[in-house]
Amino acid sequence: MTACASRRVLRPLLALSAIALVGSACSSLTSAPTTSAAHGPVGAVVKLRFVAFEPQRVTVHVGQAVEWRWEDAPVAHNVTFASFHSPTQTTGTFFHTFTRPGTYPYRCTVHPDMTATVVVVA
Ligand SMILES: [Cu+2]
Fold first, then answer.
1. Centre of ligand 1 from the C-alpha of residue 107, in Å
2. Rounded mean pLDDT of 79-92?
3. What are the C-alpha distances in Å from 75 to residues 87, 89, 91, 121?
4. Buried-most residue among 6, 58, 68, 113 (CB within 10 A)?
5. Is the pLDDT of residue 17 over 60?
6. 19 C-alpha to center of ligand 1: Å?
7. What pTM does this model have?
């Protein structure tokens, strides 16, 4: 009786993780530009903590994404570039895929001292 019950719980869990696997395989194959649902391979990770971007400067290749991770709760931050920005939030992630070489400064509009740079190379 106990064994049957645990099997019943296990099966839907396995089905769910299979769906999750299929889902992530699909999203890594697509190369659509800038949403967090579909982004290029992550070339750099920036953590938001201690009211700073860490590291302050990252370099990625064209077609790669930068992932920002909020690790400063309960302090809210955002990632604001000249042409796009993340929500202001206390937890979570934000991805952006860079499609042109260049030097892109950005900041958190909540904290004027929070500035950083993404360098994109060919
Ligand atoms: Cu901030």
1. 8
2. 98
3. 13, 8, 9, 32
4. 68
5. no
6. 35
7. 0.70
